[in-house]
Write a structure and sequence with these properties.
By secondary structure, this protein is mostly beta strands. 0% of the residues lie in helices and 54% in strands. It contains no helices and eleven strands.
């Protein structure tokens, strides 16, 4: 089992920055892949960024150059640094982990970008 707890969401003006954190209940060194997804009202959940052991991070085209995913194995935490935020980035952001052939999700954190 893996519990994921997100934090760092909030309200920010367009052009601003936020850093999301995802704290895992077990060592993320052993977790195959972790990612951030988001879901805007009336839209499907979409992949924002993914990081896996031994592989380069991948990003949605809409966030490339603005968002950065990183991991701190010592703190069992994955981060999403979000810069140059746009109103269209407004969504609930979810942390995801794939471990032991199971999918795990956090409860989500709201990000709202005002124009």
């Amino acid at each position: 089992q893996v519990q994921l707890v997100e934090s760092g969401g909030g309200l920010v003006q367009a052009g601003g920055s936020l850093r999301l954190s995802c704290a895992a209940s077990r060592s993320i060194f052993s977790i195959n892949a972790m990612a951030w997804y988001r879901q805007a009202p009336g839209k499907q959940r979409e992949l924002v960024a993914r990081i896996a052991s031994g592989n380069s991070p991948i990003y949605a085209d809409s966030v490339k150059g603005r968002f950065t995913i990183s991991r701190d194995n010592a703190k069992n935490t994955v981060y999403l640094q979000m810069n140059s935020l746009k109103p269209e980035d407004t969504a609930v952001y979810y942390c995801y982990a794939f471990w032991d052939w199971n999918d795990y999700w956090g409860q989500g954190t709201q990000v709202t970008v005002s124009s």
